[in-house]
Amino acid sequence: MGRRSILVATGWVATAAIATLIGLGAIRLVGESLTGTPGGVRSAAEIERALASPQPAPTGNTGTASAAPGTASTAPAASSAAPSGDSGARRGFATDGGTAVAECGVGGVRLVSWAPAQGYRVRDVDRGPDDDVEVTFQGAAREYELKLRCIGSEPVAVADD
Q: Which of 121, 126, 85 has the alpha carbon at shortest distance from 109?
């Protein structure tokens, strides 16, 4: 009986060891996403570098409002944004119908991103690069056309021709 107990105990330990090794191997195959942070933990310097590099914002073509165009307005509020390394100044513009970011470069002005405000949709976009670019935001009662041009190396809003 003593020899049989030792054989059973040895078999049980061997089975447990094999099952543990198989489990550890499976976790390694699945990777860090199961046991840690995907992509690893970033240092403060890596975060600063990532935030400093320009990322294009998603272009919006959302909204479900549809109506006849109303009066157009081209009086945006402008704000500065970080310029990219291969272009001139980058600036943001806002209307009641939506926002846009443009930059001046070798080929002229270029729309970097645009997004309609709630209740508006993007009806038309000329992203450039060109002498001028424009984006039209259409809402239920109004339409806003934002036309931009480079003056010097800075994008500015201009009245529609």
A: 126
Q: How many CB atoms lie within 10 A of CB 59?
A: 16
CA angle 50/118/73 to nearest 5° reads: 100
Q: Whole-angstrom Cα distance, residue 76 to residue 59?
A: 19
Cβ pair 156, 147 in contact under 8 A = no
Would you say 101 and 57 are in contact if contact means Cβ atoms under 8 Å apart? yes
Amino acid at 120: Y
Predicted confidence band at 45 (pLDDT cuts at 50, 70, 90)?
Answer: confident
* Residue 40 in this model has a pLDDT that exceeds 70: no
Bin 116: left if φ > 0, else alpha if -120 < ψ < 50, else beta: beta
**CA nearest neighbour of 74 among 149, 22, 129:** 149
Whole-model pTM? 0.48
Residue-wise pLDDT for 50-88, tens only, equals: 777 665 544 443 333 333 333 344 444 444 444 444 556
Other C-beta atoms closer than 10 Å to the C-beta of 40 total 9
Dig out the tokens for 52 from the structure: 């400093």
Do residues 57 and 119 make contact, with C-beta atoms less than 8 angstroms apart? no
